[in-house]
């Protein structure tokens, strides 16, 4: 028996991807649902900002 919560989550995810694709067309980079971890230089700049404030 299908899980309705899982089906709804999948449909919501598909809809979000479709909207992102439409808004980014034409684009050279693929749409991603995940945000990459900050790079080491990004992390360093965040620490410097905290020391200033």
TrEMBL record:
UniProt-annotated stretches for the region Disordered: 1-53
Positions with biased composition (Basic and acidic residues): 1-18
Name recorded for this polypeptide: Uncharacterized protein
Protein species of origin: Rhodopseudomonas palustris (strain BisB18)
Taxonomic placement: Bacteria, Pseudomonadati, Pseudomonadota, Alphaproteobacteria, Hyphomicrobiales
């Amino acid at each position: 028996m299908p899980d309705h919560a899982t089906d709804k989550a999948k449909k919501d995810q598909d809809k979000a991807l479709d909207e992102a694709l439409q808004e980014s067309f034409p684009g050279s980079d693929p749409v991603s649902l995940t945000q990459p971890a900050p790079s080491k230089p990004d992390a360093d700049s965040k620490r410097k900002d905290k020391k200033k404030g």
